Amino acid sequence: MGKSFFIQHKLLGIINGNDVDLAGNVLPQAHDGESRLADGSILQREPSLISSDEIKAIWDWNNKHTLVYGFLMGSLIDEPAAYEKVIDCTTAHDVWTTLSKEFGQSSNVMLRVPESQLTTLYKKDDTMVSDHVDNYSQLIERINYHLKPTEKWSNGRINRAFFGTLNSEQWGAYEDGLAKTVNKMLPSELYAKIKARDTAKLRNKQRDAATTMNGDKEANFTNKDLKSHIDDKGPCNGHGRRNKRSKNTSHPLRSEKAS
How far apart are CA 209 and CA 128, in angstroms? Predict the structure, then answer.
């Protein structure tokens, strides 16, 4: 979706403003599906062979502009920060110019969007590793899509940059342990190892929590059992000895002998 795409499909004039709508400052077809003339009237049907060159040019411009405008805006739907910048733009040229100012002048403006997002990507504690991997890999895929074959990110660069989005205290030692193999490893292989390691750490954490909980339950049970045992023996007298049971305590066998 970079500049090369629009050059290839002969749409560059739409985004750089050289190819303008002859109808002037009217609402483009991309917004409501209607092509308008300079006086604001709507073209009711596709131009015919006998239509004027102006009407044909307006119709043709609107068709090309709708394609470009929809393509640009559609690519930003999943990029809220960038989308908010261009939501009020009425033409593809406005969208392109706004993005150029926001992300820097470049022959490939749309490349700057994922690159900018990648610089701020960092795994939060409440984000699942699997979700973080998906977010990162999608950004890398979009970046490489816009780069020339000789400029595309190598596996080593992708893997090293990925560790840069993780907490170094939690993953730094693991990265060091991989040493130079991380440069030759396929990103998909690294992602699988990271996910497996995170899953194992989570299970260990859950097991430790369960062990601690069971230990607390056993301690509570022991205390209750000891208290119950003391209660059965009866209270202590003033000399620290257990009081003897009363001789008058009813007992089935003693009652039978007394009778």
Answer: 20
